[in-house]
Amino acid sequence: MIRATTAAVVGRVRRAVRRRDVAVVAVVVLVAALVGVGTGGTLALWRVSVTGTQRMPVGVTVFGAGAPGSPVFATTSTPLDASRNRGSVTYTIPAAATTTLYNNNSLSGGAVAIPLQVRSLAQGHRGLAYTLTVDTAGGVFGASQVSTYRVASAAACTTSLTGAGATLASTPWTSAYTASTTPSDEYWCLVARYVPTRWTHTDTAQVTATGPAGTVSGASSAWTATAARTFVVAAEPVHTVTFTFTTFRTTP
Known about the structure:
With 252 residues, the chain is of the alpha+beta class. Helix content is 18%, strand content 39%. Mean pLDDT is 77; it is low at 19-48 and 52-58.
């Protein structure tokens, strides 16, 4: 009698466990359906805690600089500073500009105007500013007067520009919110003027002689020559303009 009762109890327990297993399977199937796991999918349920620094990209930042119509853009491989908000793009002044500037070292000298374009975009509440660093040390450019101007277009970049150059900085995008997809184009003009270094010098030669009667006679001759400092255009060092850009949340 006791055995029968025990067997009955065990049977009821087993049936209850099977019903509970069926219920659990039903719940898992329901969750799978809700999260979109279909036939052949795998669903894992777990709980995990992760601690770390979270970053949320907001909007888009675009920056390019260089020759008008073909600026070089910063990419994901462009080196940034430790804050991840500063990078740079470098433009190399063409060698042909040195030839034009030197102008065969003629008396009239030479001049060259090099147009530069900056194209940028900053969406969301992200602002963008940039500066220019001009390296024209050495060679013909180093012996020239170099100024950089802000101009309205590439066509406005000519050697007729005179006067003090502009401040080599701009903030095309403030931190005010924008969803614009139209980039900003700004233009600069690097003007170099070369005046040859020339000088004149006079040389005089004089001779004296004593004749048989003890008389002394002499003669002199003088001539003037012009000298000029010269350069080897092919040996001109590399000259660059570096555009350093910074993104920010508040106006710098």
